[in-house]
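tool_call predict_complex ligand=UFG
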Amino acid sequence: MRVLLTGGAGFIGSHTAIVLIEHGHHVVVLDDLSNASEEAVRRASRLAGVDIPLAVGDAGDRELVGRTIAEHGIEAVIHFAGRKAVGESVAKPLEYYRVNLGSAIATLEAMAEHGVTRFVFSSSATVYEQPGELLAESAPVGIDLPNPYGRTKAMIEAIVADASTADPSLQAAVLRYFNPVGAHASGEIGEDPKGIPNNLMPFVAQVAAGVRERLRIFGDDYNTHDGTGVRDYIHVLDLAEGHVAALEKLEPGVLTVNLGTGAGGSVFDVLHAFEATVGRELPHEVVARRPGDAAVSTANPALAHERLDWRTTRTLADAVRDTWRWQERNPRGYAG
Ligand code: UFG
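tool_result ok
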């Protein structure tokens, strides 16, 4: 299939591009490079052994999305584009609603104008109103969420559902990601956060590299096995394979699935895995809880297993090793 990846120069998009090509698909990337790098697309092209065309621009620009679809004979769209920093979304809610909702709507409109019916959407476990253990897709989803970022994801899920009701030819998959981590095993592409990382794994990687002084652990008094927050860390290549499976299994209507491992790792588990990989202790201190954080968030991945015939194969230790290889080889990310 000829597949357009909006936001395809980002962390998850660039890994998915490679895996799609390995499965015989053709990939085109549309990305405004606001939180991504052209270098990621160059390296993904090298790793995949084909030149991945990159259109630089905004997925909220319906004309541009339409032109890109027409120019490349696109048959399916995976919509990764969007803002994704939880804290920033609290400070800049209108920007998050404009960019995330705007790009999803413009992309769906451009698809409809050009007769493209296959759509895969990057949603998030953050849409669940009550985070918890082994969440199933049937758990309540709504807009009563702790931040605007999560609300944009829940709203786009509703938009996709309404678009599907209005146009039964639409074939959509909504993928609720848990916590994507890791990097390509080559160490050539990975997560390249701008500024101070918000998320645990890139932060620990920078502590290990000596870029940050110490990890601050946000609370050790949760009701979990060691008191720290537990998450379902999924290797980005497992996640990428989930997108390929979802794309290949599309059928009319909307299929909504969790993409997670079903296993939980705590902050200390991640820290200790990193310490084992680098062979030394990493400086850390326990500080107050981060507002809005849940004790536990893990996926029940049974529906994805059943409907997509997909399973994760990589462990947290694999993700840590791959993250460290990427970090060591690219101390300043794509900047060198
Ligand atoms: N944590 C720390 N110190 C840090 C960073 C994180 O202790 O410096 C802890 C958090 O308290 C949490 C765990 O590490 O217990 C994971 O935190 P992340 O920020 O890496 O991930 P979150 O689970 O908070 O957020 C992720 C995605 C969001 C998404 C959310 C959905 O980053 O985009 O999952 O559940 F909305």
